Amino acid sequence: MPNPDPGLTYLTLTATPAPTCPVLGPKFGAIHYQYVSLQHLTNTLVWRDWATRSPTLTPLAGWVSIAGGLVMSMCCSAHLILMLPIGVGMLLCSPAQPGRPCYTASGWWVGGATKLLAVLHVAAGSTVPTMRAAVNASLLKGVFASSEFLGLGAAMSGVGYLGPIWGTAHFLLVGLNLWVLGSTIQDWAVASPLLRRSSGLINIGSGLLLAALAPSSGYLASVPDGVAMALATPTRPAPAKTVTTTRE
Amino acid sequence: MLFSHLTSFNVDYLCVELRPGLLEMRLKDFMPALTTFTYIASRTRPSPTLREVVVTMGWNAVVGATVTGVVAVNLYNLYQRHRHYGGISAQAYTTEVLPLAKAHVIVGPVVMTQTRWGLLDLFCGGLRSINAYHPAALSCEPFPGESTTIAS
Q1: Which of A81, A233, B129, B130 has the fewest CB atoms nearer than 10 Å to its CB?
Q2: pLDDT, tens digit (0-9, with 9 covering 90-100), for A187-245
Q3: How far is B42 from chain A (nearest CA, A)?
Q4: pLDDT at A67 (0 to 100)
């Protein structure tokens, strides 16, 4: 390539042929990995708020959502526009009053907005050809026959490459976790006696799916989480102390 | 270079940033090239040696067995709680797993070099480091070891 500017010195590093096809590289996977980490934290906090029948959501959950939106906005500014209102909503929302319909609670609407975002996230991702190709490759050829050395061990040894399958798996996991978060917020808002069954099943399914896509990763640990969600019971209120007085 | 592990990414986008004319060239060149993932992989990823394969699979076996064991123990504990108490106290369970959720945020970048450097590159370079004029531009990260041009 001719150097158009004599002030710049160009050095060409040649190892393999120049890139001709777009791929999802480590930055894409890394940013989604971190966002999944933040989602674990948020989901657990909201889950505990449901269990304790807290009158408000833990502020940390809202702030973590806002921080997650800021982090993800480095990928795409739409994340900030979408996650900022949800984070603020989590900070301000309230549960339904007893006897009132669910849609009168701001928390129920915040949960609904989160679930809508989950659908939009997965739908937008499915339009990226490389993601579709990564899923197809892993399904058709198997994970080890695909291009990446998947698994935590591969990443730790440095031989593996966090490529499109790793990134796509985390991208889809973000969408599933957003759906679970929205459901849990809604359950908290209406003080449901049990979490809805879909939350536990999605957690179990996503754990198994990620374990298949990235063997020897820690994602199998989502299975006990899902089981616990499916069987979780809220904290029973302490029985009121009955004062017995004896009249003489 | 600032981040030696990601030489190819950094310098490639630095070059684009210095000479905006290249941006159109890159996108124009990329668009017709949206072909199958298998083709991308076979073309750009070097084949690992036998030793690398053995080491990696060994790592995977150790980590996989450990994770599976921990999960099995967790499931058994949950079964015991459900059987004896008629349910799983969500408050107690979330109190147990909350530290793990917090640790997960830190463990990834600490354990995985590529995650660490990828995040650092993003934080330091911001939008320009990923050439994010369009969300789809994220898909333009090349595999390491590809031909790149450095402007210095």
Answers
A1: A81
A2: 999 989 989 999 999 999 998 888 877 777 778 888 998 999 988 888 866 555 555 55
A3: 7
A4: 87
Beta-strand relationship, B88-89 and A10-13:
unpaired
> Would B148 be classed as within a structural domain?
no
Number of domains observed in the structure of chain B: 1
Residue A140 has what pLDDT?
A: 76
* Tokens read off for B12: 């490639």
Mean pLDDT, chain A, whole residue set: 78
A116 CB within 8 Å of a chain B CB: no
Which of A134, A216, A234 is closest, CB to CB, to B67?
A: A216
Chain B residue nearest residue A128, CA to CA: B136
Tokens 């080491």, located at residue: B55
Longest dimension (CA), chain A: 108
The rounded distance, in Å, linking the Cα atoms of B75 and B12 is 47
| A-B C-beta contacts closer than 8 Å | 299
Which residues on neighbouring strands pair with residue B109, listed in sequence order?
Answer: none
Q: What is the pTM of this model?
A: 0.73
Q: Are A2 and A143 in contact (CB under 8 A)?
A: no
Quick one: closest CA in A to B93, which residue? Answer: A228
Tell whether B145 is covered by a domain. Answer: no
pLDDT at A15 over 70: no
Strand, coil or helix: A180: helix
Answer whether A8 touches B (CB < 8 Å).
yes
CA distances from B40 to A18, A167, B17, B96 (A): 11, 15, 25, 43
Q: Distance between alpha carbon B113 and the CA centroid of its chain, in Å?
A: 9
Contact A189, A107 (CB under 8 A): yes
